[in-house]
Amino acid sequence: MVSNILDENKAELSLLLKGAEKVGKIAESEALEADQNKTVSKNVIDAMKEARLSKLLLPKKYGEPQVNLREYSQIIRTVGKYNTSAAWLTFLYSIHNSLVAFMTKEGAEEVMNQGGLIADIFAPIGKVEKDGDGFRITGKYSFVSGILYSDWVSLAVKLKLDSEEPELCMLTLPISVVQIVENWDTLGLRGTGSNQVIVDNVYVPKHHLIRLTHADRTGRPPQGYDKDYPLYDVPFFSSFCVGFPMVALGGAERLLQEFKNRTENRVRMGGNSAKDSRHQGVLAELTIKYYESEGLLDKYITLLENYEMGKEDKRGEFAAIRSKITKNVTDIAVKVLLTLGGFSMFKGDPIEMFVRDLLAVCTHRSNLYEDSVEAFGKTQFGFDVSING
Predict the structure, then answer these.
(1) How far apart are CA 273 and CA 70, in angstroms?
(2) Within 10 Å of residue 341's Cβ, how many Cβ atoms?
(3) Which UniProt keywords apply (predicted)?
């Protein structure tokens, strides 16, 4: 019986990985177009939906894959080998859709039955006030990845609920009641379409409220707890941010492949680059840095798998590990570009595009190296830190 279950799980993972490869290849073939349009195409989104990649982390009670975090890493990194923006969206759509696991039953069923994609933003920029049993929200939210193809958007606010201390919460709205401002024009990750959303005195019913502070401190949903669900019994933000280093490692793997292939075929005035010990050394150095980053991701996932809520606060440690991985990856990207030289910086060259995208990954607030390392250092000496993730 156990053997049959394992075989079924392997078969399902194989299908998901094939779907991830298809999504990645479509995105790669359209990379220049996405860069110009500042969003991936509907072809990429349709392939993602067809492969069920947006539903990877939905609870199994909804009939979805509910992969574990190691399987999740394989899938995100597979997409990332082909296109960073597509991997970013595969990660964020799947992790955003998992928000239903922290909604009330009524809210979760409404969103699930509609079946669409969810975008979100965690910066509590908007103003909110009570209106009967619900709330009214007003504000401008930037960096809302994937909003152009989403049916829902969850927006962060600060609310006083059970105590005098304001909680970080999410209010989930249908796209029909928000205004989208297409202002995404950046150095990298241009295909993510991370545009601005404006809401003006929009009513949100109470069952569309998600209590993020409560989820982060307890690891539990308001109802429907399942001990086998990988995003329960862990700090919400630390588990939510697990995909960022996965996206980065997928891109780094591709850059190392590109570096090796181009070095083997590159002829310089002094001879073939592949015979140059300097280039051999660079590849060795960068490969070791990549292995180090893989080990750090394994450590991150292991910490989540063995986490005990209510004991030592490890949010600073999670942040430091995550940011060290993305820093390593940007170091790899820059070294590849500088070593290969001028022919790699032409607009639309895979090296040029991956380098820009991976630098953009590192600028996300959850991956800022100095902030994260400082937070980890403080927690080691027992100081409280203000950091999400």
Answers:
(1) 37
(2) 12
(3) Oxidoreductase
Report residue 124 as tokens.
């509590």
Q: What is the pLDDT of residues 326-345, one digit of tens each?
A: 999 999 999 999 999 888 99
Residues 90, 24: Cα–Cα separation, whole Å = 10
Cα separation, 12 vs 20, in Å, equals 12
Q: Write the DSSP symbol of residue 71.
A: H
pLDDT in tens, 79-108: 999 999 999 999 999 999 999 999 999 999
The class that CATH gives domain 236-380 is mainly alpha
**What span, in angstroms and rounded, lies between the C-alpha atoms of 203 and 199?**
10
Give the strand pairing for 152-159 and 118-121: parallel
Instruction: Give the CB-side neighbour count of residue 136, counting CA atoms within 13 A.
Output: 7
In eight-state DSSP terms, residue 226 is: -
CATH number belonging to the domain at 103-110+117-218, selected among 3.30.360.10, 2.40.110.20, 3.30.70.100, 2.40.110.10: 2.40.110.10
